[in-house]
Known about the structure:
- With 450 residues, the chain is α/β, with parallel strands linked by helices.
- It folds into 2 domains: 11-43, no CATH class; 74-411, Methylmalonyl-CoA mutase (TIM Barrel).
- The chain has helices at 11-20, 89-101, 111-114, 119-125, 145-157, 173-180, 189-196, 211-215, 220-240, 245-250, 262-282, 310-325, 344-360, 374-396, 400-406, 408-426; strands at residues 32-33, 39-40, 79-84, 106-109, 135-138, 167-171, 203-209, 252-258, 294-298, 329-331.
- Strands 3-4-5-6-7-8-9-10 form an 8-stranded parallel barrel, surrounded by 8 helices. Strands 1-2 form a two-stranded antiparallel sheet.
- Helix 11 crosses helix 14 (374-396) and helix 12 (310-325) packs across helix 13.
- The longest helix is centred in the C-terminal third of the chain and has 23 residues, at 374-396.
- The radius of gyration is 22 Å and the shape is globular.
- The termini are far apart.
- One of its GO terms (cellular component) is cytoplasm.
Amino acid sequence: MPAIGFEPATRAEWAAxxxxxxxxxxxxxxxxxxxxxxxxxxxxxxxxxxxxxxxSGMPGSSPHTRGATSTGPVDGAWxxxxxxADAGPQAANATALDELARGSTSLLVxxxxxxxxxxxxxxxxxxxxxxxxxxxxxxxGPKADGPARWLLDLxxxxxxxxxxxxxxxxxxxxxxxxxxxxxxxxSSDLAVxxxxxxxxxxxxxxxxxxxxxxxxxxSEAWELACSLATGVAYLRSLTDAGLGLDDALGALAFTYSxxxxxxxxxxxxxxxxxxxxxxxxxxxxxxxxRAQVQHALTSAAVLARxxxxxxxxxxxxxxxxxxxxxxxxxxxxxxxxxxxxxxxxGRRTARNTQLLLTEEAGVARVVDPAGxxxxxxxxxDRLAEAAWERFRSLEADGGMAVALASGRIAAEVDAAWxxxxxxxxxxxxxxIGVSIHPDLDQVPLERPAG
Length: 450
């Protein structure tokens, strides 16, 4: 919109003025390039979208770039999902009850970290938790079928009606293989458990967890591509086992990392929904079955052991970006989790970071607030394009399982990690309090080993 009383300025005029201050450099020298090779110019304008049909659509409508639902989060808040990973069922239960009493709305329970041995252990973790009110999502891990069956049995024994059940069973053999470096076979349990919750719309049997790739160094486009290839592998497995496409799509939930690169995180989450819509469309799904159930987890890779107080700010940026990006649920890692097992203060600040964003700042009260930004729309487009090409390459080579087994994913991620480390060492990606401006007199923060 032109400013009244002012002549509109052209990009050429801006560039000429900018170059006067650049001491002989051109305005183009202000451009930067992402790890995916996407060039980011210093100034964006409507010309960046000239000739393109608006791909974003409307919230709640295909291609779901602007949100999976038309109304956004219920009551102006996304699902505040607390991580429960204390050693032992008794300690985990205390954390779960404290989180729910103080503002968290669902639980992300890590059976491996807690050391769950049987159904009784899970029942102890969730003792006095109102399962008809709070969702329970299991973190994927080795032998995930055990905790998945224990959770289903617990819902039955507690008399929780199917419409009131909310959560995820945490089946993700490919993600577990990527994180732990050990092959995981697709068992019949994947389809059996997916079929068991087919009539329970609030429960997802399978989690497509993309965070192992991001935390190992993968770029945004590679994180997206790996999630797509993993999701497609699960769709094939489920439909080959006899599930209908609607039930197979309804069995999947996705987890992505959120970090301190604010606009990259926002655009990545928007691109993820658009890309999954495209996959579902190619499979023959109608528009109302293409929305992605999306959870964002703040990245462990950006948390520092040195001067960990800076992690409070890093978590705030990551959570804000995930909320603006449209994640339905967000988990903030406690700032001290990089050191060891978080204490009550670490958990409280993680929880209150989200509550401040939703209840004080009102971040969730507007659906897709970044939509229409020339920068965000252009970056969303380019990330989607880059991720789609990488996804097609993975599929052409045999799919995600083959890419993991052959070492291709590890090679891609290792190369990306080396680039990131080099940029940090050179100061191009600084860590405040670590690589620059360290507090050399700070007393180290101590936590029990995790």
